[in-house]
Structure formats: structure tokens, C-alpha cells
Amino acid sequence: MLDWSPLIAAFLLGLFSSAHCVGMCGGIMGALSMAIPAEAKTRRWWILLFYNIGRIASYGLIGVLAGAMASELAQLGAASWLRWIAGLLLIAMGLYLADWWRGLTHLETAGRYLWAYIQPLGKRLMPVDSISKAILLGLVWGWLPCGLVYSALAYAMAQGQATNAGMVMLSFGFGTLPSVLA
To answer: How far apart, in Å, are the Cα atoms of 61 and each of 41, 64, 142, 150, 162?
Structure first.
């Protein structure tokens, strides 16, 4: 039976972090929407929607991969450590969103090393003039270094199974959808 509480918590985490999402991803969304002619409003919304579907799908994939790793670690007896790390990162994320502590920027810096290899894939998809390019760009941009995503990922890993972690990250992504689309 599916436990809805981690999914609801992840959704609310994404939803309540709207200010961060608007501040960090608002420029990306603005650039995407500005590249589409003003008279093509319907097309613009479809491209933005499918870009976000790709972004959320990449969160799910990241969740499954990290959840598989967490499952292996849990079998080695590290389950309680994963829960502690997840709890501490969620607290750190709250402090970060309140602008009381900027420590998560160090975690984002670590993610930039992987991003350096992934980012060139996104450049090849520009300009985004089709739904397929929008989905692919969303899949790439979902890997953008973000302390908020990393905190949600730690929470997903604490679920102990790859599928549960993937579902938590999908829920988190859907929670961010209203603010990123706005």
C-alpha cells in the first residue's frame, strides 16, 4: 500500500518554496517565453508546460537513481544516517529559504561539477521552438545545481527504495510547477 505522507510532504515542500523557484528559475522561464513570438501565446504555453514536464521527469529519474543508491546503503546499515542527513538538509533548506543561513550554496557548488558536463547538451537545443526540444531541455535543466532540489533529494533517499524516492521527487517537482510556470 502506498504511503501518501512522504508524497504530500514533498509536494508541499515544492509548493512552499515558490519564492526560491521564482528567483532562481524565473529567468530561465522568462528567456524561454521571450524566445517565442508574442502572437503565439498558445504555443508558448505548450512549450513552457512540456519544458516543465521534462524538468519534473528528470527529478523523478534523479530520485530513482539516488533511491537505488540509498537502498544499497540501507542494506549496509546506513538507513538511520540517511534519515539524519535528510532531516538536517531540510532544516538547512528552511534556513536558506528564510535567508538566515546560506550554507546550501556550498552544496550547489559541488553540483556544478556535474552540471559542467550536462549544460552543453542544453545549448544544442536552443532556440526552443518545438515541444520535443522543450521536453529535452527540461530533462537537461532538471540537473541544474539547486540546494532546494538537493534537500528534497535527501528526503527522497531517506525513503529507502528507488521507486519511492522517484515518486517523492516527482511530487516535489509537481509542487514547484505553479511557481515556475507563473
So the answer is: 30, 5, 10, 13, 9
Calculate Rg over the CA atoms of the chain.
Answer: 16
What is the CA angle 90-136-66, rounded to 5?
A: 35
Is the pLDDT reported for residue 94 higher than 90? no
For residues 132-152, one letter each, b for 16 or more C-beta atoms within 10 angstroms of the residue's C-beta and e for the rest, the string is: ebbbbbbbbbbbbbbbbbbbb
pLDDT confidence of residue 177: 93
CB contact set of 174 (below 8 Å; sequence gap of 6+) = 11, 14, 56
Phi, psi dihedrals of residue 103, rounded to the nearest 5°: -60, -25
pLDDT at 40 over 70: yes
Distance CA 57, CA 41 (A): 24
Q: What amino acid occupies position 92?
A: A
